[in-house]
Structure formats: structure tokens, C-alpha cells
Write a structure and sequence with these properties.
The complex is a heterodimer of chains A (744) and B (158). In chain A, strands 3-7-1-14-11-12-13 form a seven-stranded mixed beta sheet, sandwiched between helices. Chain A has a five-stranded mixed beta sheet with strand order 9-17-16-15-10. In chain A, strands 18-26-27-28 form a four-stranded mixed beta sheet, sandwiched between helices. Chain A has three domains: 185 residues, Alpha-Beta Complex (Aldehyde Oxidoreductase, domain 3), CATH 3.90.1170.50; 297 residues, Aldehyde Oxidoreductase, domain 4; 145 residues, 2-Layer Sandwich (Aldehyde Oxidoreductase, domain 4), CATH 3.30.365.10. With 744 residues, chain A is an alpha+beta fold. In chain A, strand 19 and strand 20 form a beta hairpin. The relative contact order of chain A is 0.12. Chain B has 158 residues and is an alpha+beta fold. Chain B has two domains: 76 residues, Roll (Ubiquitin-like (UB roll)), CATH 3.10.20.30; 70 residues, DNA polymerase, domain 1, CATH 1.10.150.120. Chain B is 33% helix and 16% strand. Chain B is built from five helices and five strands, in the order ββαβββαααα. Chain B has a five-stranded mixed beta sheet with strand order 2-1-5-3-4, with helices on both faces. The radius of gyration of chain B is 16 Å and the shape is globular. The mean pLDDT of chain B is 97. The chains are: A alpha+beta (744), B alpha+beta (158). At the A-B interface, helix 1 and helix 18 of A face helix 2, helix 3, helix 4 and helix 5 of B. The structure holds FE2/S2 (inorganic) cluster (2 copies). One FE2/S2 (inorganic) cluster (FES) binds next to loops of chain B. The site of one FE2/S2 (inorganic) cluster has 12 residues of chain B, from loops.
């Protein structure tokens, strides 16, 4: 499989400005929706009076929580992890209490944005302001203000009698850590903190909803899954799945942050009330205050090893901020913390903690980067104490096929060792460093997932084909779909058009997330294309008046099976397609699968930095991402995933954080003060593809999108520590923080 | 309050529109004229997704009032390709996978085109600083910088 050819159809509109993202869509008669948001971090809603707003000329509808069903609290499968629809509903529009600054309280639809904004000012909300809590450690204290009166810590015995902000405690155990530490010759124990960071997609959340007089609801929205939007809106508004059709807009970045709904249920409710299509778009401030981010965490790591570097025991305790409602990625944090290594005795304990911040959402490898920051930083210190090369230390303990993971299974075929060996052999690893410069190395793991996917491949009369799937293309997956279909059909890539269907035109697909699309939906595409090949052979057999198994399909052409001696000629796909009407009708294949066997992904990153001792400013000089990608279908987009993940991780390590005032109000809700990396902050990022094929995929594909954000936090921190001699265990390593550490 | 009547040239064609005093050029391009290729990522001049040229000068359309472009020439992403023929930057961005989600791409292509018209042979640092006002959250910029360099080469040898 080669590179996708130049200028191919399907996403050319992304370079011409013609691609339609969430905010680009309009309908006749459409009106504009706006959201009234809480100015308080924590308050009881005493009353909401919308009378005046409703009377304003040009206002067509006003909704509050009273317009939505009061759902029971129950955890069900859905989204990227189990979901509680009550929480999603109460997050989309506050019921009884506001739990963070920016929490939606009411929504208005009006004939213009100006009128809608005027109407928001006329809504009178009486609040009883309550004490709030922002920091995860404060939230865990016995005397902390409680966000939810009925939240009792799960996973502790005996069942607590008092409510708490700790939603859940989870523990994973392997072997006997106490015995392991007893036999260790060196023990290292450290504490770490990381800050919540936003996914930072450049496209704010946006949608249009239109409810017809008969109740049929149509939604156009930018999300990571049109089926997710349908499912969530159906549950939140108690509508039948079949009464909602969701059409996917082009998505302007998600990184996990668009795996839930914020605006869609409000837009539907407003459209239902007004009888008009309603468009809603978040401002950047709203994106920061009311969507995402991922959790910040407080972590404690303890490593026990022998003098030769063999890890004998390990423990990690982590507390992750969930934001206003339970659901931080503490569990994946616990599962991934030590997954790179073969450690016989290990324990991880995780706490899911609510506080008065926006409810966290998935962000690339949810939960893993924080845990890896702690573990990989501690390993770096261990390597220094043992006088060992950090790659050597990792190689000595690396997980391999058959290694028992702390979270249960044995590792299948994986390529972690190969990434470490590639790191050691890379020119970067041997480039000399100057004064104030340092080199960091860190590794990372992500499970990757499979799941439910559907695909259809349609053959057109002229021999071209469409491949239709139900996964928004967030980073180039259309290209992978087209390449895989073309490969199976044996025709030129340029003849295959990849399309993303709406919820009524393609079978169910679980959302774009978990690094699953090229793997799982790709497998559905391969099966659908195989289905087409079967049909093409049958048509050839019919034309040739022979048995199907006397026809073989090769390079896009039907050939008589070997040993058949007669005068049959070959039949190309285009020839068979042209005569389809006479041989049985349209040729179209499909597959709907629940795909297992996602191959775990591993990566190793190298980072060189220079520290300015005067200012504490860190400059990233060199960066190399090495990752086992299974098999790269479109190498350019695979490299792009690796480079983009690394860049996000560098921002997480060095700059990004939420700054709150003492009232719990966010102080940096814009790109000027929430500082994501810009082009001049970064060097070229070398991407090295290690290919250890995943035996569970016909082309060997492993997910690639999430692993690359796992190692950078520690890779950067380790580089800073080696450059400056000072180790900062609290992210971000921003200039003031590093300078303070240097001054000590 | 009466609206302003503005006469302008957009992508070489005469365009007239009415706007409120508070409307930005970006609002008018997107909501009134249907030119949705310019994107709104922030509305505050920090992301560059709305980059356009006004009288040849690279600006954030979200920071320009629509009424300010009276009698000015405006160029947007929609004017970069000549009919069906892509500009070298557009072609190279596609070939080199210099975009993922693509929401930053219109702004980056408009900005990079302005750079290459000023300086046909920029080095890596010049490109990085020129594009420092254009946020991309997907790519880590590596392929974007390389694509601009390659497009520059294509344009120089054309
Ligand atoms: S929308 Fe204009 S700079 Fe971001
Ligand atoms: S390609 Fe998504 S922001 Fe640049």
C-alpha cells in the first residue's frame, strides 16, 4: 500500500474552504440559539423567571431544565466509557444546582443573535450561592463542600454512610507488592500533580436542529459520532431512535472532547418549541468554561528494584478530578500506569473526585498521560540513581508478548521492545548536547479498542466505487477506508470515494474514538469489499456459465481459475459493473461487525530541551516519536497523528492550565491566556513508524491516535530535569514555576 | 439604527452588502455572503482560522469591522484556487497530509500564500514565526511547515 495519490476526491474541499463544519450549515427559516450560563461556581437555583425574555420581540422559544425529562441516575454502556444519562442531562442544562461557572441554566432561540443575547439578560435567576471547591485534594477532605448530596463513594467496604465528593475508589492488584518492596534493593517514592487541560479543538461545538411538525427530528452537528449524538439526544429527550436522524458535519478537531453532547439537546428542545430550525454555536469562552477538559490529577508512585535495574514492585495511587459529575478516567489511569513493564508485584489505586469545574470529557488516551508522567518520571530518577541508561532500564523491564498486565490480560503480539531499540539506534539519541540542554525519554501505552462498526461498498456502473461508513473523519480516516477498499477490490485508489453516512443511511458505528476507526471500521470495510468481490466472481461465473469457484479475483479482474482450459477472457470490475443490470442487478456489499482483537499500542519519545536559567523558559530543540503502529495504511496521516499527539503533550507539559480566582471563576478562557503550542514554539517532530502487525486485522492495523499523547509529559519533564539539574514534579513546567525551582 | 451600505471587491468580484456597525467582516463573510471557508475559532484574533487579506494585508477577519472594508479588496480562501485548478499550496497540503481535521487549513493557506508572495524562499524559522498566529491543534505543525517549503519550491520553479 502506498501513499494516497495527489488531490484525490473526498477531502479536497478541506483546502478550498468548501468543507462544511458544524457552524457552516444553514437552513431556511433558521433562528439562533444562545445559552445563559451560571456566573457562580456552586449555587442552588432558587427560581428562574423567563417571562420577560419570552415577551421580547423576536424571541421564539426559551427552555430550562423544566423542559427536559428528569432522568434517573443509572450507569449504562455508551460513549467511550459507561455513561450516566442523568449526569449528561444535568450537565447540558442545570437542574436544581449549578456546579461550575459556565454551567448552562437556560437557553433562548431568537430571530438574531443580538435578540437572543438581549433575551438572556432578561432571564431572572435567583441563586443561593454555596461554598465551592476547585482543587482535588481539597475536594477529598471530610469538611469539603459537597457537590451532590446523594453521592456515596463506591468501591469501599463497608459502604459509607456519609456522602462525599469521592465518587469511586478502584484498585488493581498483581502479586504481593509488600513482599516485592521487602526484597527490593532500592525504593523510590515520589508525588506528582498535573493540571486539567483542554482538548483545544479549533472548531467550537456547533449544531443545527430541526424538529418537524410530526416530531421527526433532524440534527446536523460536529461530533465524534453521529450515532452517539442520536443515542444521547434520544435518551435525554425521550424520543425514539428512529425519530432522530443525525447528519455528521465535517469535524474541526475533537481529540475525545466531542464524544458527548452539550448543545444538541438544547437546540432540539428550542426547535420543538419554536417550530423553527435552530442553530447553536459555542464561543471560545463557552468552550473553555463548559466543555471538556481532561482531568488534572494528584499521583503518588513507589518503585522497588534490584541494583541491576529489575523492577520488583510498584505502586501508584492517583486521584483524578472529574469536574462537576463523576466520570474521570481514574480507572484507565490505574490500568495503564505500569502497562509498559513486566512487574511481578504491583498495585494501583484510583479515586474519581468531583469538584466545581466543568465535567471532564475524554481526551486522547484518557487517564494515561498523567499516570505515565508520574511513572516515567520516577523511572528516570531510578535510572539516574542506578547509573543506568534510561533506555536500557526500560528494555530490561519491557512488557512483551505473554507479559501479565496488572489490569488482567496477557499481552498479545506487541512492539514495545522494538520502539525502545529504535530509540537507542536513532541519530537523535546520540546527538551531542550543549550547556543547559538535556535529553528526556519516556514511553507510553494505550489499549486501543475495536467495537461495533458497519460499512457498505457500492459499485457504480462506470467501475468506480463508494465506501460508506458511519465514523466522522477526524484525522484522515477517509483515506484509510478508500485505500483498504481499493486494495481488496484491486482497483486504483482514485476510483474509490470514501463517504461518511448519516444515521439513517449506514449501519450503526460506534463513535470515532479509542483509536478504533482504521482498525475496526477498516475491518468492516475490508469485509464489505470482500463481499463485493464474492459478488463480482458470481457475476463473472454467470457470464461464463461456470461455477463461482472456477473464477478467481486478482488485481481488479476476474480470471478463470487455474487448470480451467477454455477460451474465456478476463473480465474487469468495470466490465462486470457495466453489465450488472443483466446479471442480477446492483453490486453492493456490506458488513456489520463487533470487532475484537484491537492491538495494544506502545510508543517511546525522545525530547531535547534547552533551559534558560535566567527566565525559566524551556525551548524544545529536538523531538522524536517512535511508535508501533501495526501497519500504516496511510503513512502520512499516521505520522500526523504521532506528531500532533506529541505537540499536545508538549503543551500539557509546559504551558497549559486552568487558572481560577478565589470565587471559582476561570481566568483564562481564551487562546491568548490558555497557551497552546504555536508553530514557533515547536521544532520539527520526527515520526518513526515501527511496524509489528496486529494479527487480528487483515492488514495488521493497530490504533495509532492516542498513544502519542502518553509519553510527552514525562519526556519533556525528564529533559528539563537533565538540562537544569532540577526536577519539577508539578505540571505545567511554565517559566515562573521552573524559575522558582531553579532559585531554590 | 440604519445599516451601512458597503461596496467592496471580494476575490476579484464586486460585492455590495448592508451591515450593522458591530458586525465583523467575518460575520458578514460567513452569515451574509455565504463564504464559510473562513472559520471562527475564537473571535478574538488568537487562532488565525479567519485569516483573510484586506488590500493585500493579512488580517484576522474577526477583528475587522465589516464597515471598514468599504472600497477595499478582500481575498478569502474561496479565491485561492483558480476555478478547478488548486493553488500549489493547496495541492501540496493534500499530497503531504499537512492537514487532519482541516479547520485551520483555510486560514493557514491564506496566511502562507501571503508569506510566499512576500518571500518566495522562506526558511523554517520565518515560516514558523509567520504562522505563529495560526493555531493548529492536530498536526504539530511539522507537515504544515514542510508543505509551505515544498509549495515555495514548486512556485519558484514554475
Ligand atoms: S476567529 Fe479570528 S483569530 Fe480566531
Ligand atoms: S488540522 Fe485540525 S486544527 Fe489544524
Amino acid at each position: 500500500m502506498g501513499r494516497y495519490p495527489a488531490g484525490s476526491p473526498g477531502w479536497r474541499d478541506k483546502v478550498t474552504g468548501q468543507a462544511n463544519y458544524g457552524a457552516d450549515f444553514s437552513l431556511p427559516g433558521m433562528i439562533t440559539g444562545r445559552v445563559l450560563r451560571s456566573p457562580h461556581a456552586h449555587a442552588r437555583i432558587v427560581s428562574i423567571d423567563t417571562t420577560e425574555a419570552g415577551k421580547l420581540a423576536g424571541v421564539r422559544a426559551v427552555v430550562t431544565a423544566a423542559d427536559f425529562p428528569d432522568l434517573p441516575s443509572e450507569v449504562v454502556a455508551g460513549g467511550e466509557s459507561p455513561v450516566n444519562y442523568r449526569y449528561i442531562s444535568c450537565n447540558a442544562i442545570a437542574r436544581d444546582k449549578v456546579l461550575y461557572e459556565g454551567h448552562a441554566v437556560a437557553a433562548v432561540a431568537a430571530i438574531s443573535a443580538g435578540v437572543a443575547e438581549q433575551a438572556l439578560k432578561l432571564i431572572r435567576v435567583e441563586y443561593e450561592v454555596l461554598p465551592h471547591v476547585i482543587d482535588v485534594r481539597d475536594a477529598m477532605r471530610d469538611d469539603a463542600p459537597l457537590l451532590h448530596d446523594n453521592l456515596y463513594t463506591e468501591g469501599v467496604d463497608p459502604k459509607p454512610t456519609k456522602p462525599s465528593n469521592i465518587a469511586k475508589r478502584t484498585e488493581f492488584l498483581l502479586g504481593d507488592p509488600a513482599a516485592g518492596f521487602a526484597e527490593s534493593e532500592i525504593i523510590l517514592e515520589r508525588s506528582y500533580t498535573t493540571q486539567p487541560v483542554h482538548q483545544g479543538y479549533i472548531e467550537p461545538h456547533a449544531c443545527v436542529a430541526s424538529v418537524a411538525a410530526d416530531g421527526m427530528t433532524t440534527v446536523w452537528s460536529s461530533s465524534q459520532g453521529q450515532f452517539m449524538v442520536r443515542e444521547f439526544c434520544a435518551k435525554l429527550l425521550k424520543i425514539a431512535d428512529s425519530d432522530i436522524r443525525v447528519l455528521p458535519a465535517e469535524i474541526g478537531g475533537g481529540f475525545g472532547g466531542k464524544t458527548t453532547v452539550y448543545l444538541e439537546p438544547l437546540a432540539i428542545a428550542l426547535s420543538r418549541k419554536s417550530g423553527r430550525p435552530v442553530k447553536m454555536v459555542m464561543s471560545r469562552e463557552e468552550v473553555f468554561k463548559a466543555s471538556g477538559p481532561t482531568s488534572g490529577g494528584v499521583l503518588q508512585v513507589k518503585l522497588g528494584a534490584r541494583r541491576d535495574g529489575t523492577l520488583v514492585a510498584a505502586e501508584c495511587e492517583l486521584a483524578y478530578q472529574a469536574g462537576a459529575f463523576p466520570g474521570s478516567p481514574a480507572i484507565p489511569g490505574c490500568m495503564t500506569a505500569f502497562a509498559c513493564y513486566d512487574i511481578p508485584n504491583a498495585r494501583t489505586v484510583g479515586y474519581d473526585v468531583v469538584s466545581n469545574r466543568p465535567k471532564c470529557a475524554a481526551y486522547r488516551a484518557p487517564g494515561a498521560p498523567m499516570a505515565a508522567f508520574a511513572v516515567e518520571s520516577a523511572l528516570d530518577e531510578l535510572a539516574l540513581e542506578l547509573g543506568m541508561d534510561p533506555v536500557e532500564l526500560r528494555l530490561k523491564n519491557a512488557a512483551k508478548e505473554g507479559t501479565r498486565a496488572l489490569y488482567g490480560p496477557k499481552m498479545p503480539v506487541i512492539g514495545f521492545v522494538e520502539t525502545l531499540e529504535a530509540a537507542r539506534a536513532h541519530a537523535h539519541y546520540n546527538t551531542p548536547l550543549k550547556a543547559n540542554q538535556g535529553r528526556g525519554i519516556a514511553s507510553g501505552f494505550w489499549f486501543n479498542i475495536g467495537g461495533q462498526s458497519s460499512a457498505a461498498v457500492h459499485i457504480n456502473e462506470d467501475g468506480t466505487a463508494e465506501v460508506v461508513t458511519g465514523n466522522p473523519d477526524i484525522g484522515g480516516s477517509r483515506a484509510s477506508m478508500a485505500i483498504m477498499a481499493a486494495e481488496v477490490l484491486g482497483i486504483d485508489y482514485a476510483k474509490v470515494k470514501p463517504l461518511i453516512g448519516d444515521t439513517a443511511s449506514v449501519g450503526y458505528c460506534f463513535l470515532t474514538g479509542g483509536s478504533r476507526v482504521t482498525f475496526a471500521t477498516g475491518k468492516a470495510v475490508v469485509e464489505a469489499a470482500n463481499d463485493v468481490v464474492q459478488q463480482l466472481r458470481a457475476r463473472a461465473a454467470k457470464i461464463w456459465k461456470c461455477e463461482v469457484d472456477e473464477v478467481i479475483w486478482k488485481d481488479g479482474v476476474a480470471h478463470p481459475a487455474q487448470g480451467q482450459t477454455d477460451t474465456r477472457t478476463q473480465l474487469s470490475l468495470a466490465e462486470i459493473a457495466a453489465s450488472a443490470a443483466r446479471t442480477g442487478g446492483p453490486i453492493s456489499g456490506k458488513a456489520s461487525l463487533n470487532v475484537g482483537g484491537a492491538g495494544p499500542g506502545f510508543g517511546t519519545h525522545l525530547c531535547d530541551v534547552e533551559v534558560d536559567p535566567e527566565t525559566g523558559r524551556v525551548t524544545v530543540l529536538r523531538y522524536t516519536v517512535i511508535q508501533d503502529v501495526g501497519r500504516a495504511i496511510h503513512p502520512g496521516y499516521v505520522e500526523g497523528q504521532m506528531q500532533g499527539g506529541a505537540a499536545q503533550g508538549i503543551g500539557w507539559a509546559l504551558n497549559e492550565e486552568y487558572v481560577y480566582d478565589d470565587q471559582g471563576r476561570l481566568q483564562n478562557s481564551g487562546f491568548l491566556d490558555y497557551r497552546m503550542p504555536v508553530a514557533s514554539d515547536l521544532p520539527m517532530i520526527d515520526a518513526v513508524l515501527v511496524e509489528v502487525p496486529n494479527p487480528a486485522h487483515p492488514f495488521g492495523v493497530r490504533g495509532v491516535g492516542e498513544v502519542p499523547i502518553v509519553p510527552p509529559l514525562a519526556a519533556v519533564a525528564n529533559a528539563v530535569a537533565r538540562a537544569s539539574g532540577v526536577r519539577v514534579n508539578d505540571l505545567p513546567i511554565s517559566p515562573p514555576r521552573l524559575l522558582a525551582a531553579l532559585m531554590k | 439604527m440604519s445599516k451601512h451600505h458597503i461596496s467592496t471587491t471580494i476575490n476579484g468580484e464586486p460585492v455590495e452588502f448592508l451591515c450593522d456597525t458591530a458586525q465583523t467582516l467575518l460575520d458578514v463573510l460567513r452569515d451574509e455572503l455565504g463564504l464559510t471557508g473562513s472559520k471562527e475559532g475564537c473571535g478574538s484574533g488568537d487562532c488565525g482560522a479567519c485569516s483573510v487579506l484586506v488590500e493585500g494585508r493579512l488580517v484576522c477577519a474577526c477583528l475587522v469591522l465589516a464597515a471598514e472594508v468599504d472600497r477595499c479588496a478582500v481575498e478569502t480562501i474561496e479565491g485561492v484556487a483558480q476555478g478547478n485548478a488548486l493553488h500549489p499550496l493547496q495541492q501540496v497540503f493534500l499530497n503531504e497530509a499537512a492537514l487532519q481535521c482541516g479547520i485551520c487549513t483555510p486560514g493557514i493557506i491564506v496566511a502562507a500564500k501571503a508569506l510566499l508572495e512576500k518571500n518566495p524562499d522562506p526558511d523554517e524559522e520565518e515560516i514558523r514565526f509567520w504562522l505563529a498566529g495560526n493555531l493548529c491543534r492536530c498536526t504539530g505543525y511539522d507537515k504544515i511547515v514542510r508543505a509551505v517549503q515544498q509549495a515555495a519550491l514548486v512556485m519558484r520553479s514554475a
